[in-house]
Amino acid sequence: MIYLRNILTINIQEKELSPKENCLQRKEIVIVFVHLEFIMTYFKNRRSTDRPEEEEGVERIRRLKIKMPNIKVFGGSSHKGLTQKICSKLQLDVSKASLKKFANKETNVEIGESVRGEDVYIIQSGSGEVNDNIMELLIMINACKIASSCRVAAVIPCFPYARQDKKDKSRAPISAKLIANMLSVSGADHIITMDLHASQIQGFFDIPVDNLYAEPALLEYIRLKIPNWQEAVVVSPDAGGAKRVTSIADKLNIDFALIHKERKRANEVEKMTLVGNVEGKIAILVDDMADTCGTICLAADKLVEAGANKVYAICVHGVFSGPALQRLNNSKFEAIVVTNTIPQEENMKLCPKIQCIDISGILAEAIRRTHNGESVSYLFSHVPM
Do the Cβ atoms of 205 and 183 come closer than 8 Å? Predict the structure, then answer.
């Protein structure tokens, strides 16, 4: 195997190629080499007969302890715990970077190891100090790009400013488009995100965007954690989430309902109307984001008034800003289930009703497949370990 790799490397050196072509051709050879190494190691270590015929990528990497070459994974300040979990699943160490502030509060980034010719993945979620974290991500991307990395991908579990995706009133900005422009200008070659508030945000970019879905993980939670889910009704708290809710209801083969809301202003709801029957059933509210939680708490009250036995809330991104935690503690929910696209450790301490689904496996497998040039569509219907 080493002999084969040396021959391929010498063959590249004999050709006159531009630095970019050289980088890409070396990467193609490394991918071939990794696939051959996977095959040889797999059959060498395959002992038991109780393993499935096909094994998911990150699980195979973890079991065989295979190191992925030519890849660096950095984490921003927003979600260090998620970065550590992703790297653990990929059998990688978190790459070194110093993230500090100058005395005047400007962001100071120093990449602590060589990224020349490497695929770089930078994990930064749109949470906490959102504006500072965006700037930190942009500087990290640019620092890696001008340090001669082969490709730079931004892994953004919760995309910032995603709710400002259209001009809904006079002189309103389309901030999601501005963020897309900034990421492209900084040097990002690829974006990996999860459950965009509006899927058309992908069209704001001139670079590839993989919008992953937490739906397989949510379905798994419902089947395993909610008793008598077969008698439940999946409810959308607004008309915009109807497509998401009908998809889940179809896969579970259960009924769905819809709550129509009229807003006075942002984060304030004037009137709610329930469309559908929840009497004597378990109601499962599903939404992409829980921010101040005023809407879903009012929706829970509406569902209980309509005769629901129990009410659960399942949201992908748990922002929980302002009075959210107090509202949830006083709400009629059995549980509020979110993913860890945003850190939830402190929120779970302050609100016992919050439960968290780990999506690090989905992001780790997306990174592995992207690095090896494989399709990520498998993740739209499966939950990696």
Answer: yes
